[in-house]
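quick one
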Amino acid sequence: MNIILLGPPGAGKGTQASRLEADRGMVQLSTGDMLRAAVKAGTPTGIKAKAVMEAGELVSDEIVSGIIGERLDMSDTAQGAIFDGYPRTAAQAASLDSLLEERGRKLDYVIELDVDEEALVERIVGRYTCAACGAGYHDTFLRPATAGVCDVCGSGDFRRRPDDNEVTVRTRMAEYRAKTAPILPIYERRGLVRRVDGMADIGRVTAAIAAVLDGQ
Ligand code: ADP
Ligand code: ADP
Ligand code: ZN
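structure w/ adenosine-5'-diphosphate:
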């Protein structure tokens, strides 16, 4: 099964994708994570993407569709992929269709995380991750069981993203509204969209997504 998690920054795409990965053996494909890895490694893609990401604007369609195509060639994705943060434009949606078709795969669902924009700023500015294993946390909504210690790996090294600040998040939301939200009707026409209440507790959102995937 191949699904897209669609929603503005902070909607919970990454949180839910990693739960699906753990619960169902699907593979999370986050273009944001891939781009951050490229920036960190200083690859040509990373060098091009860095300033764009820091400004909260969108990296070019060619770059992101290129990295998704390369990732889909790795055999683990044949079990089922969760697209997290991709596609973000109509051009990327068209590329994804071709990339899947070329590999004899298809899209099963587009899960839209329905959220209240104002609440998202609080989610974004409180977000941090474990630097060692990538587990995601929040200052208020998802704290580690022991303060300062990652639940998953025990590391005490946490990181915040440079673009997770109030100014940049407004730009990212404007980008979402202008370029990403308009791709929903494309998928609605194909009968693929399932809307889930993204303002519910993390566990309830997970359950609602599971109900969709299990056809309930
Ligand atoms: P996205 O990948 O859509 O940008 P994340 O999954 O990283 O969003 O979530 C943003 C922040 O909000 C994280 O710190 C996460 O722990 C927290 N979060 C995610 N889902 C919820 C939820 N349903 N309720 C409260 N906080 C949430
Ligand atoms: P969030 O879900 O919190 O908005 P992501 O981690 O998905 O953040 O993306 C971070 C940044 O990486 C985006 O603001 C954008 O600059 C870039 N990016 C990620 N995915 C894409 C994409 N599919 N198309 C263009 N730019 C992207
Ligand atoms: Zn960890």
